[in-house]
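Progress report, Aim 2. The chain analyzed during this reporting quarter is listed below.
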Amino acid sequence: MPRSPRNYLNTSFFHVMSQGINKEFIFNNAVDIKFYIKNMYEIKDKYHIEIIAYCIMNNHTHLLIKTNIIKNLSQYMHCLNTKYGLYYNKKYNRVGYVFRDRYKAEGIYSEKQLYHCIKYIFNNPVKAGICNKAEEYEFSNYKKMKDNYEEEEYDFIDVEEDKREIGRKIVNDFLKQKGLQLKDLETNKQNLKELLILLRKKHNISFRIISDIIHINREKLRTEYHRR
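Predicted structure tokens for the chain:
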């Protein structure tokens, strides 16, 4: 049976690991791995699963999954590993379990822990001596995440309201100091950029929360933030 993440009601992020029975290889070639990855994405919407990061090794898998319902995680992993188990046994003319203990899952409870988990997942093939850099490994989504890594935003249930309150106070203080109204930020790019630097770099407030506070589209905020 899968291990239930600790205090799972307090998080929506889970590091999920599946290992081959007796630590044996269960992905013998690229075709096997690609079959598993294809199924990962084909069934995720059915179970309302978001795949944040993954790395598929020869004898185990690592997934970083986001879901608001723990039952969905259990059903998703059961379906995914069952599909692969049936495929593997048929292809290699074998019977019995393919995965050891179904899967293991650990909840992620802070932003620091989240990014540590992402780094850990992507560095698996480096630690195994398969490649020198994470981006060299074919069977992870490192390259896809790297392109938008700075733009990825993960707000946690237990800290989001605190971030929102901090953000509101910073915005109000900034407007008061500058003698501006909220609507002025839409056209005053210099002040908007200054405020964004204050919110993002000094206080790590996400673009989504900033957008909710000052009522400016997230894409415009990103553009202004990165504008030189």
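DSSP finds nine helices and four strands in the chain. The CA atoms of residues 43 and 112 lie 29 Å apart. These observations will guide the mutagenesis work planned for the next reporting period.
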